[in-house]
Amino acid sequence: MIKNAKVLVLALLLAAASCSFTTSDEDPGKDKVLISLISYVLEKGHYDAKEFNDEFSEQVFNDFVTSLDPLKRYFLQSDIKEFEEFKYQIDDQIRNEDISFFDLAYTRLRERMEDSKKIYDEVLEQPFDYDEDETIDTDYENLDYAKTRKELKSRWKNQLKFSAIGGYYDRLEEETKKAEDSTGYTALSKDEIEKESRETTKKSLVEYFEFANELDREDYFSVYINTIVEEFDPHTTYFGPVDKDRFDMQMSGQFQGIGARLQKKSNEISITEVISGGPAWRGEELEEGDIILKVKQADEDVATSVVGMRLDDAVELIKGPKGTVVTLNVKKKDGSTQNIAITRDVVELEETYAKSTTVEKDERNYGVINLPKFYFDMQNAEERNAATDVKKEIIRLKEQDVDGLVIDLRSNGGGSLSTVVDIAGLFIKEGPIVQVKSNGAESEILKDKDPEILWEKPLVILVNEISASASEILAAAMQDYKRAVIIGSKQTYGKGTVQNVYDLNRWLRQNDLGDMGALKITTQKFYRINGGSTQLEGVKSDVVVPDKYSYIDIGEKDLENPLPWDKIAAADYEVWDGYIDYEQTINNSNTRMAKNKQLQLIEENAKWIKSKQDESVWPLNIDAYAAKVKQNEKEAKQFEGLKDYKSDLTYKSLPYELKEFESDTILKQKRERWHEDLAKDVYMEEAINVLEDLKTNNIRRGKLADVRD
After folding, report:
1. 30-59 tens-digit pLDDT
2. In 3D, which of 249, 247, 205 has the Cα closest to residue 22?
3. Which of 241, 247, 534, 571 is most buried, by CB atoms within 10 Å?
4. What's the CA gap between 107 and 26, in Å, rounded?
5. DSSP 8-state class, residue 574
6. Nearest to 462 by CA among 498, 402, 413, 411
7. DSSP E strands: which ranges in 334-448?
8. Distance between CA atoms of 385 and 276, rounded to whole angstroms?
9. Each residue of 546-571: pLDDT tens digit?
10. How far apart are CA 178 and CA 181, in angstroms?
11. Which residues pair with 270 in a beta bridge?
């Protein structure tokens, strides 16, 4: 639990800067045009447009101030009182292209952040007294703002002490054990350990403020814009130019560049991963840990130094169109420097794409397809997408003569509506898949028009609380047709809305302000073919199984400003007639799951996680802290059996992948880890059990054969 405490502190430290940001020159004129443009698009295009009024203004005010200072460690009560002058004026400011509230809040935040650097320096100069009987309440939402700098300093002291006490406790335990295990070892004193933990805390803060200092006015203006648009619903989002590129990459699973992941630390930009299959990986010169010093384009004589440069700016220099050459001047781990020329190419993010495996049980073969996202290329619909890849994997699995198929949609947040319609069509002859409705318009039925059924054998779909949007469409359609058995959480995420991405530049005929970015806006709601909405309610599994998210508020209904649930008329469709005793198979699975000891332990663990999540008060006295940690560790031991669980199932890669492993050892390692995880996966084990029941007992082989059985 000590690690969890540290993660909480780190997450809270980074919360104020958790958005992805844009880069541009500071231009208030551009900001005014942007806010006017976005308000126009929202009012005209949103499915359920809100009125800009005092209530709306108050919500924006509260959310924006909270987003700037979630831990309430910067602003004073006097600042908030000054800000409150604008609480009911933001709606008027939006109409009048007035950004004075933003300017005031942003300027004051910068001032307070500079003050805070002095405060944490002062606090961390003095040793912490861990014998004092103190506590910290991390329920910052219900905390008042500090009245004075003295009170603010006291708050910083508590937060920094909380950050440091974890390291202090760990090092005390470590040094005590070393002294016990090693004769003649002299353990560090408590004072030495205390100083070390303070220095570590300061180093983390220095890194945090280095990151924060890179954020400019436009970065914070993006936060302000998103505070406005998210009042309409949780999925309406403003993308600055860089953000839009990232969104496109996430949706397509590919980008054009060198194929490396970067991070910045202490003014140095280093390689954290060379992406398997990419141009840097193929070149075999760039390595993890290399530090990039300079970047030179093919048409440049002089390289550009990236030392101290913003990470986003450095990335912009390094990435580029397929076929172009970039030369990186890097410092290797041994201290030497080297120029590495790399020809940019399309880089595919393998973890985004569908992957498949086979598993044998009782001399029968089954297939599993994991689909992390319903991906597609927004710029080119003919490019690689989830539907074509799933179809390809099914064909490959059929070549292995598998008797049943599991589609794993757990934690799949959705993606392209068209790809889910195409995927659903692989399992039915013809018919409706989903209904889509715009505000004030008749619903439109999206259908599979291809009479071919690619997969006629048993089908199971795995979901959880994070399966959302397109995942819910596929699960709902297969459930309504009774084509598949849905195994998973009590309900899925509950996102029943459709978004479109609008390039804001197309609204401006003559634009000399630069790239205005894009707006992802909710324009429609989708409905099941039975007429019900998945909004808020999600898809209820046929076989309900607990997991670690069971008691955590994680769905659409737990977000701010979600659209309401409703229903429309059902579409005309015929239930799949391929199974006998479909309901009995579900009942059998539910009975098995109710008796499953592993699932009982998972549910108890989920309840325990929820109880720990609700704890907000932590002791800052070392004895009380140690007692709390040891108590948590003791309670956690009862759940150690979770990681020891292993089914008797063995998963194997398909022949085409085995050939790829000969040249791609990284891919081989990733697949081996995936197969190991599947072997420990009680949900996947039950999915195979259900396939086995459907295969041996319930699949029609022709009406005459059914009568004879």
Report:
1. 889 999 999 999 999 999 999 999 999 999
2. 247
3. 534
4. 13
5. -
6. 411
7. 337-343, 345-348, 355-361, 364-370, 405-408, 431-438, 444-448
8. 19
9. 998 888 888 999 999 999 999 999 99
10. 5
11. 263, 291
Cβ-Cβ contacts under 8 Å for 563 (sequence gap 6 or more): 47, 48, 233, 496, 497, 522, 525, 535
Is pLDDT above 60 for 1?
no
Q: What share of the chain is helix, strand, coil (3-state, %, to 5)?
A: 45, 15, 35
Strands 459-462, 405-408: pairing kind: parallel
- 415 and 386 Cβ atoms separated by less than 8 Å: yes
Which among 64, 63, 40 has a CA at the least distance from the CA of 52? 40
Pairing of strands 135-137, 617-619: antiparallel
- In the block, tokens 């992802």 appear at 520
Alpha helices in 365-407 (DSSP H): 386-399
Cα distances from 60 to residues 26, 65, 220, 654, in angstroms, run: 23, 8, 14, 52
Selection from 126, 12, 23 nearest residue 70 by Cα? 12
Residues 6+ apart with CB under 8 A from 254: 346, 347, 348, 349, 352, 377, 384
**Residue 430: DSSP 8-state:** S
58-113 pLDDT, tens digit each: 999 999 999 999 999 999 999 999 999 999 999 999 999 999 999 999 999 999 99
Structure tokens at 345: 């190419």
The span from the CA of 124 to the CA of 126, in Å, is 5
* pLDDT for position 26: 59
How far is residue 602's CA from residue 155's CA, in Å, rounded to a whole number? Answer: 38
Report DSSP letters for 225-284, one per residue: HHHHHTTT-TT-EEE-HHHHHHHHHHHHTEEEE--EEEEEETTEEEEEEEPTTSHHHHHT
The DSSP element (H or E) to which 123 belongs, if any, is: helix 100-125
Residues 700, 4: Cα–Cα separation, whole Å: 51
φ, ψ for residue 353, nearest 5 deg: -90, 160
